[in-house]
Amino acid sequence: MAIRVSLKNLGILRQADFSLGDMTIICGKNNTGKTYATYALFGYLWSWKNFLRVQISSQAIEALFKDGVTRIDITSFVRNSGNILKRGSQDYTEQLPRIFASRANHFKNTVFQVDVGTVPAAAVVGEILQRTIRFGEDDILSLSKAEGEKELVISLLLGEGSPGPPVHIVQEMLSDHILELLFERFFPHPFIASAERTGAAIFRKELNFARNRLLEEMSRTDRNIDPLDLLFKSYQDYPLPVKVNVDFIRRLEDVAKEDSFIAKDHPRILNDFADIIGGEYIAGSDDSIYFRPDRQRLKLTMDESSSAARSLLDIGFYLRHVAAPGQILMVDEPELNLHPENQRRIARLLARLVNVGVKVFITTHSDYIIRELNTLIMLNHDKPHLKRIARANGYQEDDLISSNQVRVYMAQEDLMPLEKGQKRRRRGHTLVPADIDPQLGIEASSFDKTIDQMNNILEEIVWGAE
Fold first, then answer.
1. CB 13 within 8 A of CB 5
2. Phi then psi for 344, rounded to 5 degrees?
3. Could you tell me the mean pLDDT of each successive run of 10 residues in the chain, 466 residues long?
4. Residues 245 and 200 sit within 8 Å (Cβ to Cβ)
5. Is the sign of the CA dihedral 258, 356, 405, 366 positive or negative?
6. Into how many domains does the chain fold?
7. Residue ranges making up the domain that contains 227
8. Is residue 71 included in any domain, yes or no?
9. Rounded to two decimals, what is the model's pTM?
């Protein structure tokens, strides 16, 4: 079952109802709310456990501390999953000012709702769970559930007389693990490449310097000040997706110590990515990141590198070092600073990611990306002439994608309802699903209209004198 998101009155977005496919695309002109929808979704996927809660009965907690073991029926939470999501969406909506680093009155009429349909009881009951929970340096709880069992067995691991954690901490820990059983299959872990990524790539050293100075100041200040609170305040002017993106770019040297499943199992994706950027990224021993152009020995710093190399820096490190099956890669305008040919290549690379198990969510202005995805959809049929065309143009089977894997939404302008005290209706935007035909691809009307206008002007210039 796909995640369905409903948004109302979020920034310039009046209404947005969309579901996630293996690849989800939001198209539209500038200032139509694409980024609002992206940031709201990212914030939810990043922090959903903080907003969803299940209530553990006091009897279960009492039994745990008295007898050392307790049992919880999982199916009762399955039956209540819709209400859990509804309350969690309401709590998340109240936190949108922090997600967007904006004033609360900007969100006074905002509605954010997530729905996953019916949580399959059979799938939840079929899960196997064996986990030990630590608190501080001690193992405090053991959680187990056998396949097919409806009950989760919780055992207290602390010895007699050992001070246990506060009751509310135990309740939160159990709540988190029950939520994982219920919803983790629906909510992919997100990675975001925001539109601010190019600037972060250039100034990553300055970001590290500013962080180190802040840590130094904290060591000298009042001991009663919460250092985490001080760190949060230092970044409070930036939306959560930007903060997460900047923090990833700041940590690239540590990120580079691991290999992703793509590096291990799908090296062709990395080779094709190297062709797009025209070289490779190198993590230096001096805490610097360099770019080495193809067939050259020199190493360029990020501010010496091309804008394309900078704009794809975090995506490159994600692919090589972080990506895991089931995650969702969210990219705000993947076409940034790319030549049309590379925009086509990035579309094919995104399709390959979908085919190896990584979900993709993008916003785009690029007709080249949409048209290339159209080609990948239209070629994905068992017809001799299509196979011939695919071979002749270098397409391979894992480049192709089916129409039922893709969701496309177009931002359309309309008039918003009058609010109290208003004399004129403001203009807003609505996300409207685009038609996707297995034979003809995506109907992207906003691009088609502009292209038709340009073609008409060109025809008048060429033939208008006759």
1. no
2. -65, -40
3. 90 92 92 91 95 90 88 93 95 94 92 93 90 83 92 84 75 90 94 81 55 50 50 63 88 91 96 94 81 88 86 94 97 93 96 98 93 94 93 94 95 67 68 90 72 75 72
4. yes
5. positive
6. 1
7. 195-323
8. no
9. 0.87
